[in-house]
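ingest -> validate -> predict -> emit
validate: passed (alphabet ok, no gaps, 560 aa)
predict: started
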Amino acid sequence: MQVNNEHNALSNLTALVDFSKLINSTLDLQFALNNLLLTCFGKFHTTRGIILLVDSNSGLLKVSAHKGISDNALENFEGIHPVDYLNNPVFNEFLINNRIELYQEIATSEGIKGILLLGKKLMGGSYSDNDIELVQTIVNIGASAIDNSLAVEKLKNVNRTLDAKVNQLSTLFDLSKEFSGILETETVVKLLVLSIIGQMMVSKYALVLFEDDDLNILDTKLKRTDIFDAAKKYNLREIKITTVAKTLESEYPEIYNLGVELAVPMQLSGKTRGLILLGKRITKLPYTKSDIDYLYSIASIAIISIENSRLFEEALEKQKMEKDLELARTIQQNLLPKKLPKSDNLEIVSYNNSARQVGGDYYDVIELNKRKTLFAIADVSGKGVQAALLVANLQAFIKTICKQEIEISEATNLINDLLSENTVMGSFITFFWGILNKETYEFSFVNAGHNPPLLIRNGEIIKLTKGGMILGVMETIVPYISETVKLQPNDTLVMFTDGVTEAMDTSENEYTDERLEELALKYAGKDAETTLKLLIDDVKLFTTGAEQSDDITLLIFKVK
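emit:
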């Protein structure tokens, strides 16, 4: 009997020495855990074993290795707290469900590291005191190796995290350089998407930008209509911090139901200007704090670049507009008469001041022959080059047709038909023109929807309204009607565009026709030059401090 005991003791000692050599031969954690289980299986003739280790993230005891027990049997075990685990009903239930006969703490000087769980022996019977003592010895030997393996595993995780961080920082640095040299939003978005997909390994994503009250989807692998529908239910601009799946599910369920696991705000000056929406990672790994920090950083860099792109595009558009306006201004000024005809019996004066946004005001005074002088004033709808070109067409038609000595109403019909063929939808011209016979002082005119000129005679105003509809809307259906008035000495005719009567003060009050008529009557006794100056001075006084919104044009002649 004593010989058997000595033999068993020697056998156990040999096994312990071999186990110690084997388990300490490597720092691989799974190798150590598997050999701990296999050694116990060999010594105690059992085929069921589990090792629980304290998880470094949650601090709970979780399954780290098992043999003889299916994965399905363990999948519902979420872990238990190592403190007072013996009194935890979950632990006791776990032992019963998995037919565990023996458990032994795996501990070091730093505290509990895990628990070894062994099932019943194949030959039946309970574990003896000697068995328990041997298990304790095996576990003690294994604890050191497991602790060393855990330390190495922790170090590896730290190194992996540092490597990932370095990689992310390197990517951020490279992206920062790339973004700084890109002034096209589309290119910025492509680069941003590629960097996110490459780093986060996601297949579902969306980049949205808030523009005034609109939502602009820059790029997406989600259904656009679903994003728009979900966004209508929330004020997504309120998302100021990175929002994870749990918060999305409770506060933004419509967004979460799209498969979005993470919402990263793109902020500029503390305001959320857009969002990066990300689905689950292909690797099934959760988004770590390091990932979230990286995404927030890249979002901040990207939104600055997108904003710079927008400002650059606006600057280009403004520059183009300024060029167009300058071209329009040049065209307009070249169309206006460089000097006015002089006459012994007439005083002719004019004034034109273009607004910052050039409109289509036009006037002209053309000596047809020694006896006749043509006066014209017009206002073309629209702004810029389009309006200036339409004015150029009008002037060309006037100068061509008036040389044919066609009756002025017939000439107006013809001008309207020509303009109708050459104007785009929505363009039109208000137009007034007349021909003065300087021998008879008969003034024949047609008013095509223009502000009626004011004929001031003997302290009264006669408005010249006879004519027809504005030019360029459609071909002539109802012919234009002309009228002839015989002018008298001291008669003054004031022609103007709506830029005069609709000029606004700082409170957006209009100058009005009534004010112009009152002053025109008041100054009618003066020479034409003085009358023009006084009228312009009054308009400038009225609009002091306000931006000029339309061209201001006046054409005045007075019969001596």
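The chain has a mean pLDDT of 86.
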